[in-house]
TrEMBL record:
Boundaries of every PH domain copy: 23-121
A matching Pfam family: PH
InterPro entries found in the cross-reference section: PH-like_dom_sf (IPR011993), PH_domain (IPR001849), PI-Interact_SigTrans_Reg (IPR051707)
Region described as Disordered: 125-170
Domain of life: Eukaryota
Highest classification ranks of the organism: Eukaryota, Haptista, Haptophyta, Prymnesiophyceae, Prymnesiales
Composition bias type Basic and acidic residues, residue spans: 125-136
Signal sequence annotation: none
Identification of the protein by name: Ph domain-containing protein
PROSITE patterns documented for this protein: PH_DOMAIN (PS50003)
Length: 170
């Protein structure tokens, strides 16, 4: 328990993090179980390729996160309804703690579980140079689409990443 208090105190003492909007995979409101009181509190969750952050305010990047989960250490992310006796819950398991989170619907939970699962898998997989370039190009396109709003999706074909590789891949 002392470890968790030290961890929370060290997070409170942190400086605000710089969230590069191009690296955000998913963000939104989720209920997170607190470490000490075991109550569910509404948190703005931000998923990047390396970490999962929670904030008290929507896009509150000018404040330190309430939690910072290193996805390189993530062992499992799965549904947890049976463990919590609550609907739409899921757990993110890292060596020092099991984080319990609750979505507002089954579909939303499944989206979060899939997105976190992809991030943890990609963190562990080594890409070739050409795969990494393709991936970075796709991330840039997605970030531009998000930054420009819904109207950018109509122009997405113009900004499609160039294909690389031999003709058999086209």
């Amino acid at each position: 328990m002392d470890f968790l208090r030290k961890k929370v105190d060290s997070l409170r003492g942190q400086q605000p993090i710089e969230v590069n909007i191009t690296t955000v995979r998913k963000e939104g409101w989720i209920y997170k179980e607190s470490a000490t009181v075991r109550q569910y509190r509404k948190r703005w969750m931000v998923l990047t390729p390396e970490k999962l952050y929670s904030f008290t305010k929507e896009r509150g990047y000018n404040e330190p996160p309430t939690e910072e989960i290193d996805l390189k250490l993530c062992g499992t992310v799965k549904s947890a309804d049976d463990l919590t006796n609550r609907p739409y819950t899921f757990t993110v398991q890292v060596p020092e703690r099991n984080f319990f989170l609750m979505a507002s619907s089954d579909a939303e939970r499944n989206e979060w579980v899939a997105a976190i699962g992809r991030a943890t898998t990609e963190n562990r997989r080594v890409r070739s140079y050409s795969e990494e370039r393709d991936y970075q190009d796709q991330q840039a396109i997605q970030a531009a689409t998000r930054a420009n709003g819904p109207t950018a999706s109509a122009d997405a074909d113009e900004h499609e990443a160039p294909r690389r590789g031999g003709t058999r891949f086209q």
